[in-house]
Amino acid sequence: MKKMVILGGGYGGLTVANELLEKDLPKDTVLVLVDRMPYQGLKTEYYALAAGTLADIDIRVQFPVDPRLILKFGEVTGVDLDRKLILFENDEPLSYDWLVLGLGCVDKYHNLEGAEQYSESIQTLSATRKTFQKVNDIAPYGQVTIVGGGLSGVEMAAELRESRADLNIRVLDRGASVLSAFPGKLQTFVRDWMLEHDIEMRSHICLSRLEGGILHNQQELIHTDVTIWTAGIQPSPIVRQLQLPKDSQGRVVLNQYHQIPDYPDVYVIGDCASLPFSPSAQAAQGQGRQVAEVMRAVWKNETPRLGKIKLKGVLGSLGKKSGFALLGNRPMTGMVPRAIKSGVLWMSKRHFG
Q: What is the DSSP letter of 218?
């Protein structure tokens, strides 16, 4: 039997698996889905788990049950592209005929001293659980500081306000405003919402060091009980250690079929792939569908014909009753985008399930 191995059961990897199981998987080919966990965690909702407004079970999606799909769980330590092997911490290497690399991202600390040691993360399910414990153990009237005023930082701050009305919450950002990459209308709406809900926002912050409960903003000392890091991401260490052409963000440069040019049997999707747009669950799913198309063409000895991946927009939440969106070039605010995001979550759980 030939093996197509999907490394990572996130949005992109699970899309590849579902697409191939639903259509024309050759009888001499088996799928192997490799992940450290026995289910997918819906990463776009990790902020709610960290805040305590959603339970762990609410953001799990079970992997497909199918005789053509082998589930393998373990900690991957490396990929040998030349020998076509996946290496594990406590297991024998796994060979493959085709490989999909969908290992996602980790926090990027920008070489800031103490940042990894003294801040909490919402990048993995395991780290998010620890963040939940830290945040919800803070005594009343304690201080939470969120470093990074992008989408993740804003959603984290808003959800935490809904969970803990007693806490002091602040967002630190290097730019002039939260959501600096978004249109001014959305920035203004979110800033007003945060002011109304007593969330402190500080701009033009340039941290030089973190230690314990102190953040060094050059000469200023900013005191905090818990620091949550949302100030940047980078590809998985497994991908970073591969000696391949990469873009300025460390993401693997691919051909038009999402393949590594020198290793056409290897596909890279999601946060590790160099794409003309920002990493997102939506982009990973779009890539996953196209990789499945390419594989079907390969198996039929046909030339793949792919269109452009079309992204519908960005959705953000401000607690459970408000939100914001950028759909195409159209900004939206209030209950409608929040309701749309809830609907997307509902569909994600049922589609992947």
A: T
